[in-house]
Amino acid sequence: MNMMAEKIRDRVTIPMVLSQYGYQTSSRKRVPCPIHQGKDPNFCYTDQVYHCWSCGAKGDVIGLVMELFGIGFKPALMKLNHDFCLGLSSERPSYRERQLMAENKRVLKAYGQWKKKKKCAYDGLCAFHRELFRRMAVGEASEEIVAVQGDLEAWLEDNIQEVVQPWI
Ligand SMILES: [Zn+2]
Q: Is the whole-model pTM more than 0.70?
């Protein structure tokens, strides 16, 4: 993920870009397309994205600046940073920032592994539940088995929501 691009997307909107570079904006958010220089208001936009129904151009603020000035992704970031006085640094993240990103990644990875283990445990307990239930059904279960089966069924029910959620 490019942090500078993220910050620019947070702070600069499509209408900001349009008016900064002398293009029309409208309260209906439909204007003549500045990219193919159309005459009809085929260029629709929100704060985050644009789409031209006529030439098919679409993208975000960075894409718009790339199209308007015929420049690449990185030069577009530099231009937005400069023209909107954002004062963002294009330098690579500091040691501390990289450390934090790595820590976050590790936590997420560990969490994913734990979730997988829980899914395994849940599936295993389901197998036990089937066996306990079978024993009860055929009248082979001791009182203790009946009690355990009740506890297990309650636990499986309490945890089912968490387990069926996707976590990838
Ligand atoms: Zn267009």
A: no
